Amino acid sequence: MKKRVLSVLICMVLVLGSIVWLTPDTSVEAASAVKLNKKKMTMYVGDTFTLKLKNAKGDVKFSSTDKKVAKVSAKGVVTAVAEGKATIKVKNNKKTYKCKITVKEDNRYIADRIQDPVNPLPEGCGIYEIKLSGKAKDHVITDRLCYIMGEKCLILLDKDIDLPGDFVKNVDLIMTTLEEKIGLKFSDSNLFSTWKLDGPWVGIEYGKRIPIYINCDRVDGGYISYAFPTYCKILDYALISQKVWDSVPTYKDNAWRRSDYVNYETIAHELTHVLTLRYASLSSIMTEGSAEFYAKVVLEALQDKNTDFKKCYEHRVEMDTFINTVEQEIKKSNMEAIFVNDYKELSMMDRTDKYTLGCIICDYLYENYGADFMKDYINALAKAKYTYEETWGSLSEENMKDQANIFKNLFGKKVFESIATYYNKQVKQ
Q1: Cα 328 from chain centroid?
Q2: Nearest to 214 by CA among 190, 192, 189, 239
Q3: Cβ–Cβ contacts within 10 Å for residue 159, how many?
Q4: Does domain 33-105 have CATH number 2.60.40.1080?
Q5: Do 147 and 110 touch, CB atoms closer than 8 A?
Q6: CB contact at 8 A, 150 and 167
């Protein structure tokens, strides 16, 4: 009986082993199955995406049911042409695979698109290089996301941007002049050396150039220009195409918001942030003040280069006659405390005092300590480990007290009292 049971058990093991051995490897079949990398997509006018038929053997042919909505190249590059719906058909070995495309008009700000988790901008869709003539009169209006490689900058462009032909040349000139005036170079800092472009421009090799995003606000969303140590973003109404400007009622009703020249002052201001923050973490007063100061210095140096530089400089001089005081009374007894407090209580919309007082501090230091004052101050901060990588732009009250001491060690123990006296003389003038 035991022998019989043992024989049955042995037979069952052999049968089960055969079943396991005969079971096909479904993981291999799944991996080798022919399929599209996308079956359904929402795109925005001007977007591109490469549709691929994975594991296909033999000829692959692409076609669109409506080329006026979405067209496709022989290599599967789908381009969103106009609002609507279309189906991209892919034929291979007598089988047809389909990808449904919904195309929408893009009215969103480009930064929102990059961060959109549902419909982000396709990676690499901005890798389309254009070139400018170098002449101001030769304008280029972008019809897609694209980029321009400058000598020191990488200009990343939204759609519907109206660029004069000398734009990149002028930006490079601003960067060169900033380096000369401050005494530091954009390319010498290794800060965030591993930082790479993402989203539409992922994969662009740009060396040590500074990325500058030029954005088009198509809905008057109140977007502003801003900067980080690794890049800056610029919104200038003068660079928005006429088509977009005419389509937004609040633009048409407020023509004063759009100048007849490129606002190179804003670009110089934001690039000053990029340059200084690559080396040291400054207080808000010194960050904004130095950007205001050097924007004016750069425009003054470049005003004879072209009409736009001259108009920007003249506008800046005019504005300086109106905005030259701060709300809080400045005295010898409170100037250092104001520096330490760093106007932390000011809201984003009410921060003019940071710009004004900071710029006056820079005026004073330039007149009394020479052209190297900012380079010397930045190097002293960096030596004390006040770098952006260490602080991420956040300075505590203790940090600010320490920075005030660094300031006094560098420029003299009575420097804050002297700045208060200088400020009050400027106000009276």
Answers
A1: 34
A2: 239
A3: 21
A4: yes
A5: no
A6: no
342 phi-psi bin (left φ>0, alpha ψ -120 to 50, beta other): left
Q: Which residues contact 327 (CB under 8 A, 6 or more apart)?
A: 353
- We find that the CATH architecture of domain 108-279 is 3-Layer(aba) Sandwich (3.40)
Count of alpha carbons within 13 angstroms of residue 181, beta-carbon side: 25
Identify the CA nearest to 404 among candidates 286, 301, 269: 286
- Which residues lie closer than 8 Å to 396 by C-beta, 6 or more apart? none
DSSP 3-state percent helix, strand, coil across the chain (nearest 5)? 45, 15, 40
Question: How is 130-180 classified by DSSP, letter by letter?
Answer: ----S-TT--EE-SS-EEEE-SSEEEEE-TTBEE-TTHHHHHHHHHHHHHH
- Token pair listed for 120: 């982000």
Question: Distance between CA atoms of 81 and 114, rounded to whole angstroms?
Answer: 20
Give me 10's structure tokens: 């042995």
Cα 104 to Cα 215: distance, rounded to the nearest angstrom: 19
Query: E strands within 200-267?
Result: 210-214, 226-227, 232-234
Q: Which residue has the tokens 């109404």?
A: 237
Q: Which residue has 């869709």 as its token pair?
A: 125
Residue whose tokens read 């004390």? 384
% the chain with pLDDT above 70: 84
- Compute CA 215 distance to the chain's CA centroid, rounded to the nearest angstrom: 9
**Residues facing 54 on adjacent strands:** 35
CA 172, 392, 233, 207 torsion-angle sign: positive
DSSP 257-296: GS-SS--HHHHHHHHHHHHHHTT----HHHHHHHHHHHHH
| Strands 95-104 and 140-141, bridge-based pairing | unpaired
Distance CA 423, CA 275 (A): 27
Q: Is 348 helix (H, G, I), strand (E, B) or coil?
A: coil
Determine the average pLDDT of the residues in 188-211: 79
Sequence spans of domains, the chain: 33-105, 108-279, 281-429
> What is the pLDDT, as a whole number, of residue 353?
87
Rg for the chain, CA atoms, rounded:
30
- What is the number of other CB atoms lying within 10 angstroms of the CB of residue 128? 16
Under a CB-based contact definition with an 8 Å cutoff, are residues 84 and 103 in contact?
A: yes
Cα separation of the two ends of the chain? 119
User: How much is the pTM?
Assistant: 0.74
Q: Model confidence over 77-104: pLDDT tens digits? A: 999 888 899 999 999 999 999 999 999 8
